[in-house]
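Now for a sample.
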Amino acid sequence: MSNLQSLKADLLKLPFADKSVQSLSCMHVIEHIGLGRYGDEIDPCGDIKAIKELKRVLAFHGDLLFVVPIGKAKIMFNAHRIYSYEQIISYFPEFDLKEFSLVPDLHTKYGFIKNATKEIADQQNYGCGCFWFQRKTCNLD
């Protein structure tokens, strides 16, 4: 890919202007931020700060593919967070949820569940929640 340029960036300080990025994906990163496992500083709100930064740079009508562990909300010491479905939805009020899919705990039995429900997500211990959000046209953030 001759036009590909790879850069290093800090998810807490992305090098993009406000509302300038049309498409973002953040897959299995947020749950680790602020827990110190990968050399980052301990910050109990690190994940929320990173989410705020993703929201800052995503353009109107922009798409965000956001993947995190889903189940009963908790922090696994020095490893990762597990989020409830409702937690993730509450973090993105200025976005429309276009699709939610799930790789459940029993993925060998159930496989990939496209258009999974909140109820199925709530039954997981450590499912893989795949959210497709789209920023609404106008908001007050």
Observations:
- The first helix runs from residue 46 to 57.
- DSSP finds four helices and six strands in the chain.
- Helices lie at 46-57, 85-91, 107-110, 118-122.
